[in-house]
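hey team, just a heads up i'm posting the complex here instead of the shared drive bc the drive is being weird again. everything in one block, sequence lines first with there labels, then the predicted structure for the whole assembly after. its two chains so it's a bit long, scroll down
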Amino acid sequence: MITMSHYLVFSALLFCISVAGIFINRRNILLLLMSIELMLLSVNTNFIIFSHYSNDMTGQVFVFFILAVAAAESAIGLAIIVSLFRIRNSLEINLINKLKG
Amino acid sequence: MIVENIINSLLNFIPEIILSIMAMVVLLFGIFKTTKHYIFATTLLSVFLALLVSIKYFPQDNLYLFNYSIVKNELTEFFKYICYIIFILQIMISRKYLEERKLFSGEFYSLLIFAFLGCLIIISSNNLIILFLGIELSSLSLYSLIALNRNSIFSSEAAIKYFVLSIIASAIILFGFSYLYGITNSIIISDIVAYPNKFQVSNLYLFSYVLIFIGVAFKFAVAPFHLWLPDVYEGAPIPITNFISSIPKIAFFVFAYRFLDKNDIFQNENFYNLILILGVFSIFIGNIFALAQRKILRMLAYSSIANSGFIFIALYTAKDFNFSVSAFYVIVYSFTIVSSLSIITFLSSKKFDLVYIDDLKGLSSNAGFISLLLMVTMLSSAGIPLTVGFYAKYLVLDALISSGLVYVAVITVLMTVVGLYYYLRIIWFMFFEQGSNSLINLGGRFHILTLSIIPILLFIIFLLPNTFFKYVFNILA
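-- predicted structure starts here --
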C-alpha cells in the first residue's frame, strides 16, 4: 500500500538528488539547468500530493504557476548561457572564474 | 458584491497597475528612434505617478484585496514609500553611466521597473502564489539586467552565478511553502502564521520555516550562503548593483516580518538560535573578508554581508521585543549603501570604471564636496556618531543586551571595530594620500545635488531622531 508519506519521501529524495546534481556537477552548465528544473518539479510533486490528499484544488493551481515560471526561468537561463558561450566558446563550469578579489 | 470587491481591489492596486503598464510603454518607446529620447523621462514620471497615486490611496486600516491575496496597511505603505524614494534616486543617477556604456535602452528601464514591481508585490502579498510570483518577477528581471552588458565577460559570468543561486533559493523557499500548504491546507499567509497559535506545532512546520529562512538567507546573502554576492556586485553594471543591494533587501525583510510576526514558532529555541548563529557568522565572515579586498565593490559586498548579519541579529531580538529595531536597521543600511554605490556610479567615467580603492587617492583635492559626501556615507556604514548609522547599530546592541546576550554583543562590537578599518581606509585615501586620477568623473551639478540628498538625510536624522524613530516604532508595535 502506497501512502502519503511514501510520496512525500519520494519528492524529498527528488529534491535532494537535484541539489546534489547542482553541487556535484563540475562539467556542464546545461546539466545545472536540468537539475534546477528537477528541483522545481519535486516541489510540484509535493503540492500535488498535498492537494490530492486534502481534496483542495489550490495546490494544483500553484503547480501551474510554478510550471509557467520554471519555463520562463529556463528560457532566461538559456539566453544567459548563449551569451556566455559567445564570449568564451565553452560551457565548462570550471572556467567560470574570472571574477575574484 | 463580488464585482464591487473586484473594483475596489483594482482601485487600490492602481500604483502597481500603472507601473506594469508603464514598463511595457517604456519598452515600446525604446524601439522607435523618435520616442527613444523620452525613455528616461517616462520612467521617472511613471514612478512618480505611481508614488502619488499610492499616497492618495493610503489605507486607514488593514485592507485586503483580491480575496485576501494582497494586504495593504500602514506598514506596507511605509516600506513601499522608502522603496520608491530609493528607486527614484537610483534612476536619476543611472542615466549618465548607461549612456556612456551604450546600455541606455528601453529594455533596461522596462526590466528595472518590473524588478521594482516584483519587490513591491513581495512587500504587500498575503498569498503564497502572489508572493512566489513577486519573488520571481523581481529575480527574473534582475538576471537579464545583470547580463545586459553582452560584450562583457564579467557581466554574463555574474549573471549565471546569480541565476543559479537565486533559483536554488527560490526552490528552497518553494519547498518550504509546499510543506506549509500541506500542514495548514491554506495558502493565505495570515492563516499560516496564525496556525501555531491554534494547533500543536509539528516538526514539519518548523522544518518548512527553516527551509524558508534558508532561502531568505540566500537572498539576504547571509554568511554560509553569501558566495554569489561579491561576484554579482563586481560583475553587474553599477546601477544594477545599486538596485540589488537595497530594494530586494527591504522587500525580503518585510517577507521575513510577515512570516515571523505574532507567530509562536518564533519562540522555538532551535529556530531563533538558527537566526542568531547565521547573523553572528555573517558579521564575522563579512568583516574579516572585507579587510583583504582591493576592489571597492567587493569591499562593499563583504560589508553588506556583515550588515545582513546585523539585520539577522536584529531579527533575533524581535522575539522578545518587536521588529522596529531591525526595520530601522534595514532602512538605514539601504539608504547608506545606495548613497555609496551612487557615488561610485557617478565617479565612473566613459573610459574608466572605479574598481580599485587606490583610485580614490587624493580625491579630496579635486572634488572636496564629493569626498565629503562619501565620507559621511562611510562613517554612517561604520556606525560612528554624527550619522544615523550610529543609532542603527546602537539600537541593535541595546536590544541584544536587553535580551541577555552580552557575549554576542561583545563579539558584534569587536567585529564592528574590525570593520572600522576598511571604512576609514577609504576616507584616509581620499583625504590624506597624494595622487590624482585624471580619468575620474567630477562633472554634473545636478548629479551632485541628487547625490547629496541621502548624506544630508543621514545627518539630519541623527540630529532629530525622535520623529522618525517614533514613526517606525508605532508602525511595527
